[in-house]
Amino acid sequence: SLMGLAVGGAAANGAMSTFNYNRNAWMTDVQVNQARRYQRQNVRLSQAEMFREDIRDLVGSSVTKQNNYVLIATLVLGMIAECYIEGPLPDGSAEFIKSAYMLCLG
Q: What's the CA dihedral at 68, 74, 76, 78 to 10 degrees?
């Protein structure tokens, strides 16, 4: 009878050890899978943010170019209007102003 209790206790201890080992392995797998999913989600979010930043840079570049074109066009049109309203330039005008005047007149 004592031998039966010892064998039963050993079997129960072995079963409990196996259960705890499997439970620990299962918990580790769950944690690893959760960390993997979390990392994958973070990579996808980072990728979407990079795409948005690329689009923002491209649009910003185009807007800056357009602003520069508008500025130059405004200056040229202003000079053309000034040339037609005021008439010819005085003889003592600076060379770069004469060059701009001739460019605006065509």
A: -160
pTM given for the model: 0.48
Which residues have CB under 8 Å from 89's CB, separation 6+?
97, 98, 101
**Among the listed residues 74, 71, 86, 79, the one whose alpha carbon sits nearest the alpha carbon of residue 102:** 79
The whole-angstrom separation of Cα 22 and Cα 1 is 31
3-state secondary structure (DSSP) of residue 93: coil
Secondary structure tally for the chain: helices H, strands E: 2, 0
pLDDT tens per residue, range 9-45: 777 777 777 766 777 788 889 999 999 999 999 999 9
Structure tokens at 58: 């491209």
Structure-block tokens of residue 72: 């130059």
